[in-house]
Amino acid sequence: MGLESRWVLLEAYGKLFKNKQRPQPTMNNWQIAAMVMEGFDPKVLGEDLAKKCIFVVCNHLGRPILDNERDTVEQALHNAREHFWPQLTFEDLACQMSELERLEMSLA
C-alpha cells in the first residue's frame, strides 16, 4: 500500500473521531481501515474522501488474509452500495471496484 493510501485512512480517521481517539502507533493499516469503515459517514468525510476510503480498502490494502480483513472489505462494499452505488449488487461492486475508481478519479 502506498503512502498516499495511508494518509487517506488517517485523514478519514481524524475526521470521524475528531482526534479524540488517535490511532495507536502499533495499529496496522487494516486496523485503521476497519475503524474507518465502522464509523463511516459520508456527511462527515465528504463524498470525495469517503469514496477514496472505499477504494483504498477494496483496491489498495492488498489481499485480505485474516477474517477481520475480509470483514473490513465486506463493510466497505456495504458502505459503497448503501451510500454511492445502490444499483449494483455486492458481487458487481467487488468485481468492478477498480473500474469504479478509475471512472471516479477521471471525473475529479
The Rg value, from CA coordinates, equals 13 Å
Q: How many angstroms does the end-to-end distance come to? A: 22 Å
Mean pLDDT: 91
Low-confidence stretches: none
**β-strand amount:** under 5%
Number of helices: 6
Number of strands: 0
Judged by helices, strands and strand pairing, the structural class is mainly alpha
SSE string: HHHHHH
* Overall spatial form: globular
Helical content stands at over 70%
Describe the biggest sheet?
A: none
Describe this structure in words.
This protein has 108 residues and is mainly alpha-helical. The chain contains 6 helices and no strands. The longest helix is centred in the last third of the chain and has 18 residues, at 90-107. The protein has helices at 3-17, 29-38, 42-45, 47-60, 67-83, 90-107. Helices cover 72% and strands 0% of the residues.
Structure in a nutshell:
The protein is an all-alpha fold and 108 residues long. The chain is built from 6 helices and no strands. Helix 1 packs parallel to helix 2 and helix 2 packs parallel to helix 5.
Give the tags.
single chain; 108 residues; mainly alpha; 6 helices; globular
Question: What's the topology here?
Answer:
Blueprint: H1 3-17, H2 29-38, H3 42-45, H4 47-60, H5 67-83, H6 90-107
Helix pairs in contact: 1-2, 1-4, 2-5, 4-5, 4-6
